[in-house]
Inverse folding.
């Protein structure tokens, strides 16, 4: 049982970090970023290239993933989403754009990196084995790093000037603009940060699960699930959703093993029932 | 008014002439019989997309049409294979089954809005796939294969539709079937949108609370629209199963659901015939780009992004702007 909880916590930390980026973009722009999973894959491949192929230190690789994705995110906001939001009659039109960018990233990743499953050498060797828990050290390191990133993100949103501006933007765009917040600029920073988070998680996880060009879509769906559990556009909700999904997956895989591959079926069904009782998730605001 | 009406009638007649006479004639003279399959797919996909469009019309983003297409396909396939029903009987049954299921599913989830509804319906597509894998009646990942072609349909001894298996050119038969259904489907849609219910649906799209406060029964309207939408999905899935003579859990996936949605966006959310045009353009665009090999997806998605930047309100909005200018 301890093993199951430890696995759940480890998964949850990763998931929460993915969900944070998605929820940030949603909160600021009301855009459901379909390409989030693809951004994650791209981050993974950049770390694979820098750390696995070029042999540079892992930290540099992680930094490269984060920075590249941040730049891509900023450009996407400035040239694609902002334009479409301005020109379109209906807000939902951004979904077509988001889906198209997801396809585009899929194609780029496939062309640049091929369809093979890629992995990198372990960052830390050895296995932790005590008190009934078996866990490789690299997983512990990655899990801890993820928690550090989450904490840093939350603190940044809470106390920095940029974070405060973004929270104001998420609460009420027009009011924030009237108070002198430069809406366009902070939307761009927010989008860049969301993309950066996806890239960083991709970089972290490539050391454990590896990466291949096909996992973008499934990762996006998982990220949507977490955001729905916690409530879209709420930082606390994304973290809670991430840990809950991680835990459910970990417990489900153990408990439901004898019934075959039904864990996700059960999770989906539970989610639909949950959402019909609480349509805005755990902490979501009554809009969306 | 009468001039406008005449133009509309002329357009409909021209459209019917093209799809029922000109296209088959052109295909048989050019010998490109593979086009029948492509056009049949377009017709069927546009039926499913029309359903998605209808949910857009009540202000909901529906990424779950794949689930109902899959459900419809399985209902038809199971009834034909295990119970020996005629395909023609299973077609409406599949649609009604999906509509009934969508009422049960829709009652709770239609309370959700915006992204929440979009994401739940996306999850629904996955649920349908996983259910098809897990349930014993659907035969798991192996799917249901070698479904017989649709048999003859006769009423009072009069054969209305001949047995597809005896036909020389079953592709043409499927084409005519799909196109007929498409015409019926869009006629129904047009009638629905221009009726009292259509206006009420539009009020939902704009402001549900306001509509509700005036006395519109929003819960009922939402469920009705969603049920009609799922009916279309089920029917198109059932015919797909009949054409390919097989159905697998992966026959309709999240990608298909997303594509149905994209068809609507591309055609234009404000136009009844948007999904038809959107499906045609997207499907043929994808097919034409096949020659570009590995760059197919890159070019396709790149064009989609550009199109979105230039025409964010859909292809049919082009006609509107030129009319305004002129």
């Amino acid at each position: 049982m301890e093993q199951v909880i430890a696995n759940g916590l480890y998964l949850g930390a990763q998931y929460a970090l993915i969900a944070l980026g998605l929820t940030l973009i949603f909160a600021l722009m009301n855009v459901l970023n379909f390409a989030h999973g693809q951004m994650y894959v791209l981050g993974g491949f950049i770390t694979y290239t820098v750390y696995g192929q070029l042999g540079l230190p892992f930290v540099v690789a992680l930094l490269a993933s984060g920075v590249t994705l941040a730049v891509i995110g900023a450009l996407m906001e400035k040239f694609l989403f902002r334009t479409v939001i301005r020109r379109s009659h209906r807000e939902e039109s951004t979904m077509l754009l988001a889906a198209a960018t997801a396809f585009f990233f899929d194609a780029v990743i496939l062309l640049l990196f091929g369809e093979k499953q890629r992995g990198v050498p372990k960052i830390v060797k050895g296995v932790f084995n005590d008190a009934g828990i078996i866990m490789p050290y690299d997983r512990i390191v990655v899990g801890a790093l993820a928690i550090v990133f989450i904490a840093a993100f939350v603190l940044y949103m809470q106390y920095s000037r940029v974070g405060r501006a973004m929270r104001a933007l998420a609460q009420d765009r027009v009011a924030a603009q009237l108070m002198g917040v430069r809406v366009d600029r902070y939307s761009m920073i927010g989008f860049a940060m969301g993309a950066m988070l996806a890239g960083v998680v991709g970089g972290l996880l490539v050391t454990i699960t590896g990466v291949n060009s096909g996992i973008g879509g499934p990762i996006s769906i998982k990220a949507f699930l977490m955001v729905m559990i916690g409530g879209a556009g709420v930082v606390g909700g994304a973290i809670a959703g991430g840990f809950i999904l991680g835990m459910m997956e970990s417990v489900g895989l153990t408990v439901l093993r004898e019934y075959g591959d039904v864990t996700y079926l059960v999770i989906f069904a539970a989610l639909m029932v949950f959402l019909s009782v609480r349509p805005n998730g755990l902490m979501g605001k009554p809009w969306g | 008014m009468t001039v406008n009406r005449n133009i509309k009638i002329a357009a409909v007649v021209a459209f019917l002439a093209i799809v029922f006479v000109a296209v088959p004639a052109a295909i048989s003279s050019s010998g490109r019989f593979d086009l029948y399959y492509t056009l049949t797919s377009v017709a069927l996909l546009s039926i499913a997309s029309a359903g998605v469009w209808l949910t857009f019309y009540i202000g909901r983003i529906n990424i779950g049409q794949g689930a109902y297409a899959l459900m419809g396909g399985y209902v038809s396939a199971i009834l034909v294979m295990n119970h020996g029903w005629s395909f023609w009987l299973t077609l409406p049954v599949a649609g009604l089954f999906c509509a009934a299921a969508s009422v049960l599913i829709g009652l709770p989830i239609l309370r959700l809005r915006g992204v929440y509804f979009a994401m739940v319906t996306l999850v629904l597509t996955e649920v349908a796939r996983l259910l098809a894998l897990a349930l014993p009646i659907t035969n798991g990942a192996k799917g249901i294969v070698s479904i017989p072609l649709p048999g003859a349909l006769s009423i009072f001894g009069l054969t209305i539709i001949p047995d597809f298996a005896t036909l020389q050119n079953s592709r043409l038969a499927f084409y005519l079937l799909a196109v007929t259904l498409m015409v019926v489907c869009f006629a129904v849609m047009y009638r629905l949108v221009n009726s009292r219910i259509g206006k009420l649906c539009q009020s939902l799209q704009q402001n549900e609370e306001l509509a509700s406060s005036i006395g519109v029964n929003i819960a009922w309207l939402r469920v009705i629209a969603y049920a009609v939408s799922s009916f279309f999905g089920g029917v198109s899935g059932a015919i797909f199963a009949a054409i390919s003579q097989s159905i697998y859990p992966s026959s309709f996936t999240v990608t298909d659901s997303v594509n149905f949605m994209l068809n609507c966006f591309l055609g234009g959310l404000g136009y009844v015939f948007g999904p038809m045009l959107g499906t045609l353009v997207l499907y043929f665009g994808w097919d034409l780009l096949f020659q570009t090999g590995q760059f197919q997806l890159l070019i396709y998605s790149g064009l989609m992004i550009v199109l979105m930047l230039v025409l964010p309100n859909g292809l049919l909005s082009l006609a509107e702007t030129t009319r305004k200018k002129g």
